Amino acid sequence: MTIQLSDHFTYKKLFRFCLPPIIMMVFTSIYGVVDGLFVSNFVGKIPFAAINLVMPFIMILGGVGFMIGTGGSALVAKTLGEGDRLRANRYFTMMVKLTLICGILLSIVGIIFIRPISYLLGATDAMIGDCVIYGRIVLGFNTAFMLQNVFQTFLTTAEKPQLGLMATVVAGVTNMVLDALFIAGFHWGVAGAALATGISQCVGGILPLIYFLRPNNSLLRLTRTKFEAKALIKACVNGSSELMTNISGSIVSMLYNFQLLRFAGENGVAAYGVLMYIQFIFIAIFIGYTIGTAPIIGYHYGAENYGELKNMLRKSLLLMAITGGIMLLLAQVLANPLAHIFVGYDAELLDMTRHAFKIFAFSFILTGINIFTSSFFTALNNGGVSAAISFLRTLVFQMISVLVLPLIFGLDGIWWAIAAAEIFAFVISAAFLVAKRKKYHYM
Predict the structure, then answer these.
(1) Would you say 336 and 376 are in contact if contact means Cβ atoms under 8 Å apart?
(2) Which of 322, 348, 413, 437 could form a disulfide with 405 if both were Cys (CB 3.0 to 4.6 A apart)?
(3) pLDDT score, position 1
């Protein structure tokens, strides 16, 4: 039985609708982890640290795709809820065209400036070569990466989350197979990892593009349209919280790397890289859930079905809280085996990584609630509140924490920083939910 955005969502129906995007995001994170796994074990910890050092810059550029996808899908879902499918398709087409233009321009800029950016991020002489090689190759595929990010959200809005999952699985399998072939087989090092990532992103970005270019039975399809500045600006402003999350997260990652180089040297950067890869898998569950729920919230907001908004908020906050608690327990149990997979070849680095992850994992308790709250306001087309939550959570609170806590607790203060930031962000999220309840009628 097909689940429609207009339905009333029970826990069972919510689970069925959100499971494909959750699996999609988990799978995306896993094949990203495979890159790090192969580089760390087959190339070495210095190249592994180099990739993690330059990754924040790559994610900032690719984050434009998240901005267009989330902001655009919120606008499209709201328009569908208002009953105007033709206008929704025009908006959808505009977002795809904008992604193509931005992707090409950002790729050129990134390739030109990757070397000075790498030095700015703190690359050492031992790391700079790998930073430049990996960065230039991956940024050459940035347009496909942005399209992949855009279609992950729009396929759910089109009531086709299973297709998004299929595209991601095919892309993920492609990446893992090519990692094994290029890195372990051909010994191409970080260049092999970059090529494997780029080719897989082409699969994930181009397959959905072909689907929407052809006649299909989804809610959305690409059509002839001109750019409408008002709609584009509205979508980009609304999706700015997701871009802010990427930019802030990348800036904070740079700050973490600077602090870790100061307190623990290259081992600290490598350990942090492992934490980021493992975190991707855990956080992917929360992000996948928001990808699934955002079109539902946007649709019912457009249809002025406030009872369903209350239903979605209540169920989602409970699910995020329970999932966060389960993640903390799993992280404590799996800290050693997960760290061993990446850095088992180095006893000192293994011990640092295991210890760090056990502390870092306390952030999971509140992360899901904060991520959902930001996404909730994006779906309500309130980009200002969503961006404020993301900006404070991913930049301000983390920067303060990672600068102040090490002065008190030393290296452990860096590992505790993200948990402290999530606590402050939870207070802000709760305050906004209470403050805006009368305007949107969700409480």
Answers:
(1) no
(2) 413
(3) 55
